[in-house]
Amino acid sequence: LESGVKMWHLVKNHEHGDQKEGDRGSKMVSEIYLTRLLATKGTLQKFVDDLFETIFSTAHRGSALPLAIKYMFDFLDEQADKHNIHDPHVRHTWKSNCLPLRFWVNMIKNPQFVFDIHKNSITDACLSVVAQTFMDSCSTSEHRLGKDSPSNKLLYAKDIPSYKNWVERYYSDIAKMPAISDQDMNAYLAEQSRMHMNEFNTMSALSEIYSYVGKYSEEV
Fold first, then answer.
1. Separation CA 159–CA 165 (nearest Å)
2. Is the residue at 35 inside a domain?
3. Can you cite an annotated GO cellular component (predicted)?
4. Quick one: which of 15, 18, 67, 214 is 20 to 30 A from 196 by CA?
5. CATH code at 126?
6. In a domain, 87, yes or no
């Protein structure tokens, strides 16, 4: 410092304490991290595979497939038949938007919603890669990758075709399951309500609904 020279170790030290934690990573050449990315992917591969297989399987699950999923997917198929929509990509997209992309991506990207943990910027970046891979697996379009594609897209490029097959198999297996009657569905919902009746504040929920209705009373 006395001679006007600062020593750095690959990464320039923060000169300002208010810089975000992830800022230093953006200043590094991405190729420096490529070996580390591949090593990390190899370490996590089994866990990612297990997660995807559990989500996209009716057999490899910790519990039976919820009746609501079968009921919802059958409803979507019925609506497609009713409106003469025979494109399998449309049905696939409907189902993906209802469950995997609406629910599971949110859980993968935000584990703090379920677990009492802190998610720092590095963990967030890693989970974003897994979530993006999950979304690509649910897509029906082909993903053309080249030398200019981002490294996080290239990481799972060879795995995505297998994951897509899992998704298609999952939807096909659910379609082959016995249909759920309205009576069975109503009984299932009543049982769920009974099991969780003491976990929610009914008056608080009604208060939230009341404030919403008050705000949009004319539209309602």
1. 10
2. no
3. semaphorin receptor complex
4. 214
5. 1.10.506.10
6. yes
Is 19 a domain residue? no
Instruction: List 11's β-bridge partners, or say none.
Output: 9
Q: Would 181 be classed as within a structural domain?
A: yes
Amino acid identity for residue 209 in this structure:
I
| Number of folded domains that form the chain | 1
Q: Residue 46 belongs to what domain range?
A: 41-55+65-191
Question: pTM of this prediction?
Answer: 0.74
CA 217 to each of CA 116, 210, 213, 220: distance values in angstroms, whole numbers, following the listed order: 37, 10, 5, 5
